[in-house]
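Example (one chain per record):
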Amino acid sequence: MTENERNNLQETITHILEDMKKEEGTAFSLDKVNLAEMERRTGISRKKLRLIKANGFKVLPNGNLGKSKKTTVLSGFTGVIDSYLKKGVRNSKTITDKLKDIGYTGSRSQVKRYIKDHLFLMPARRSLVAQHSNCGRRYQTDPGECYQMDWGFVQVETDVDASYRAACFAMICHHCGKRFVEFFPNAKQENLFIGMLHAFQRLGVPKYVLTDNMKSVVNGRDADGHPLWNLEYEAFMEAVGFQTKLCKPRHPFTKGRVERLIRFVKDSFMAGRTFGDLSDLNIEALRWCDAQDSDYHQCVDCVPSREHAMHCMASARNLEMNDTLKKYLCPERRISFDGFVNFEGRRFGVPHSYTHKVCRVSRQGYELLIYSDDLRQLLTRHDVTWSRRDSFCKDQYTDQPEEFPTMPVAVSMEQKTEKPDSAFRRFNFDEEVDEND
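Predicted structure:
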């Protein structure tokens, strides 16, 4: 019972006692108050009225108020919650799911209360700009008209006391919120094209894509403020058949949906996750996206996967793969003198029968496929083990003939070989033995 409830109950008891005193006059006595009549007038149970009467008709707080149990169902898991809070993760659903994986059987409400009482463990948030009043207005787009895309980055700690930075490509439908997430070793332009094509295969091709002023998209602006597109990106837009709109520089609110998606991925999907390699991580990311798109989202008032299939795909078009787009999925690589191509920081062998100097490479799941430069021939396959050792292929090298000098030999040497003495020579009595020996 809260303090306001106790005050209201005390006021009710006082008024009833005053009314009964006026009715009974001098015969009224607190010790002989009719509890049955008070129950009829107030609706309070007789058991509770007996307790209040024993306290002199004063509503006292519960004796256990302010006390807490020494051990609860959350005991033993608080250290895990503290570690997440210190990392800046305060999403109660994410933390509860992690705790249930290690044996927690309580409810999410207890985790939320613990997080609320221990927010001081979270690192201080930096202030990017001075606080000002918000006078903006959210805008809406038609189904399948606009997608938003952006990069996010995460620090990956390995089991050999090393770390590297991985890039997370994210794209989201502005109308329904259906999302796509894929991880890459870096944010190069070729990975941007691969991520966009994979997203278009799942979400369809919209009318235009909203993004910020990244160097892989735009080189700058002219005197009139018109964008100067990156030549490779401009050719990619023409090949796929969509337009691009740029956000105002240093104004992330313009594409707030994908900015919020990046933060949600970091807080919910990436937090505390352990993975084997990027192939495993991308498979888990697609499953996570499908699970999130199957839930009802209040901000868009729909189930994203259902809304996207019914309305957005009616306007967006399916991506039709052709030879030009396949080349974007298979970036070009130069073959080294020892028969290797470098892809994602690792070297993979190419058969010696392929005589060209360049080829095309594509990672599909747990396999790395190496094609000819015109994509008409599959040269070899490699298992993506993510090991730093070179990966050789069959028939990468041939038996090389012995190389002879091209100039005539002008220098000669003499080699004299002496046979070593046999261990049985001392038993050869036919040889003459010197008496002085």
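Caption: The radius of gyration is 38 Å.
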